[in-house]
Amino acid sequence: MEKIKQFFKEVRSEFKKVVFPNREELIGSTWIVIITVIVISMFLGLVDLGLTRLVGMALR
Fold it and tell me: What pLDDT does 14 receive?
């Protein structure tokens, strides 16, 4: 039981060291993630389309 208490004391101590982003940083990071996902999904879509046509031509 003492180990559990010690564990939660250490968790609380470490949690106090955490620095959370402010609103502007959070919004900026969110936009970066959204844009990155859109770019990668468009790239993968184009690769998929190209490979689909290439395989279709090869099978004719």
Answer: 96
Say whether 19 sits in a helix, a strand or coil.
coil
- Domain residue limits, the chain: 22-60
Answer yes or no: are the C-beta atoms of 49 and 41 closer than 8 Å.
no
Is the four-CA dihedral 39, 44, 45, 46 of positive or negative sign? positive
Structure tokens at 31: 């936009």
Give the residue carrying structure tokens 């844009």: 35
The counts of H helices and E strands in the chain are 2, 0
The pTM of this model reads 0.69
